[in-house]
Write a structure and sequence with these properties.
alpha+beta, eight-stranded mixed sheet, six-stranded mixed sheet, 19 strands, 24% helix
């Protein structure tokens, strides 16, 4: 119940006398003797209207203030939120200021605090579909981030980290008692999230939000201290300068009366207090500008470089161990995982996965890798982690004929009796180059024959003739053909020939 009356109306209507009588009646009923005007007005029934208003001594004093060094737009009405235009990829300074009064939050004195800077959507509609919007952006811009920290320009920031699954956020530690400036770069532009129909669409606004946390007893920075944000729009390089100039020229053409309805343009943008971002602080991947790790030659055979003479870089059926060189094991350390990435042509992502062990990397799903690395490299990395092989162009099976079997064959020529007990074990040879030199090289590797001792490779033809194996002959081999081979000494006594049967 609200009691609001104009004093002039009260006097003119003669209600003062009636009101005094009412007060006297209230005093007698409550048995409190004489009640004054102030006593009655102090009753809760008369203070309902004012109870929701903050008292002066209850005004909250923010512990921090964040100021972005970018001018606000002059084309914003008086009671609207400020709007700041930024250029895509340009570094903008955010000054991290300690705004505490003496005695405020003494537990952070001499300690570091953590701040997370995010670029998020301003429109509520886009906030509800943020995941889908960012997924589409990552698909079109594989390997890029929405927000980066310009580390060389920044001052006073410590332990800078990013999360591969949160391309729109960076975090760092800083000392409130020291001069701190974080230089940010926004890589997404406002029109990238506008349905393109006829061109010239109005870009969507974003928000730059800073959330600051103090350290808890268990050492984690999860105790929220302060949050603030501001509204921005991001343009292609130099676009923000042109837009600011256009707004300024429009305002100059307005009358003095119209200009009174608009805010002046300020040289800097002060972030205003807001609610903390709903995401709780997570453990980020270290992305500080430390020198790339130096790797010594790996002693574990899992990470050795595959031999170019191997039967196939993708198959293990030839009896050699080269297949294990392409496989990442869950027991791999962080350093071994980094080396595996380098040797499998993923050097671009060594910094991104700088804290990942073999088990960490193998836990990522195909969708995770596509989100992190983009569709092309994400699928390639997934196939490499799962050891998915590329089907060879041609597969042949080869067995070295034992000497004893040859002698028995000569004795029992034409006989189908297999009682001699000879066991033929074949090796799979996978061919990708479809060349005679590849056959020679992989035969030598599979059967531990010195390559330099093989002079020629022949195929036994009709009536026992020897046909030189050429590239054209290899290209006409039937897939999964089976061959027995024997070796004979060369005519000059140096090396030997291989005869395929």
């Amino acid at each position: 119940m609200a009691w609001v009356l104009k004093m002039d109306e009260v006097i003119e209507s003669g209600l003062v006398h009636d009101f005094d009588a009412s007060l006297s009646g209230i005093g007698q009923e409550l048995g409190a003797g004489a009640y004054s005007m102030s006593d009655v007005l102090a009753l809760p029934i008369f203070k309902q209207e004012d109870s929701s208003l903050p008292q002066e001594n209850e005004t909250k004093h923010p512990p921090f203030q964040y100021v972005m060094c970018a001018a606000t737009s002059p084309a914003v009405k008086l009671y609207d939120e400020t709007l700041t235009y930024l250029n895509q990829g340009q570094s903008y300074e955010i000054r991290m200021l300690d705004n505490r009064k003496a005695g405020d939050i003494p537990e952070i004195n001499g300690k570091l605090v953590k701040s997370i800077i995010r670029v998020v959507f301003h429109d509520r509609r886009l906030q509800y579909t943020e995941h889908q919007q960012l997924e589409g952006w990552k698909w079109n811009r594989p390997g890029d981030r929405l927000l980066d920290l310009d580390i060389p320009m920044s001052v006073g920031v410590i332990d800078i980290k990013t999360n591969p699954s949160q391309l729109n956020a960076v975090e760092f530690l800083w000392d409130p008692t020291k001069c701190t400036s974080a230089f940010i770069q926004v890589h997404c532009i406002s029109t990238e999230f506008t349905p393109r129909k006829h061109g010239g669409e109005k870009g969507v606004p974003f928000r730059i939000q800073v959330d600051t946390f103090k350290q808890t007893e268990n050492g984690e920075y999860t105790d929220h201290l302060h949050s603030a944000s501001c509204q921005i729009k991001v343009f292609k390089p130099k676009g923000a300068d042109r837009k600011q100039k256009t707004d300024r020229e429009k305002m100059e053409k307005r009358t003095a009366h119209e200009k009174e309805k608009y805010q002046p343009s300020y040289d800097t943008t002060v972030l205003t207090e807001c609610s903390p971002w709903p995401d709780t602080p997570t453990t980020f991947v270290n992305n500080s500008p430390t020198p790339a790790p130096t790797f010594t030659s790996a002693q574990h055979n899992t990470y050795s470089v595959p031999d170019s003479n191997s039967s196939s870089p993708n198959h293990q059926g030839d009896g050699t161990s080269q297949g294990s060189g392409d496989q990442l094991h869950p027991s791999a350390t962080i350093q071994e995982t980094q080396q595996w990435l380098l040797k499998n042509r993923f050097s671009t992502y060594t910094r991104l996965f700088s804290n990942f062990s073999g088990a960490d990397l193998l836990k990522l799903t195909r969708e995770d890798l596509v989100q992190i690395c983009g569709p092309a490299d994400g699928i390639r990395l997934y196939n490499a982690l799962k050891s998915r092989s590329v089907r060879p162009r041609l597969t042949i099976y080869v067995c070295q004929e034992p000497l004893r079997s040859i002698e028995l064959e000569r004795q029992d020529a034409g006989s189908s009796d297999s009682s001699n007990g000879a066991i033929y074990v074949y090796h799979a040879i996978y061919l990708e180059e479809m060349a005679a030199s590849e056959v020679t090289r992989k035969l030598a590797l599979a059967f531990n024959i010195p390559l330099h001792q093989i002079n020629q490779v022949y195929r036994q033809g009709p009536t026992g003739i020897h046909i030189l194996v050429s590239d054209q002959m290899v290209q006409n081999f039937q897939d999964e053909s089976c061959f027995l081979f024997t070796t004979i000494k060369a005519e000059n006594g140096e090396g030997f020939h291989i005869i395929l049967k």
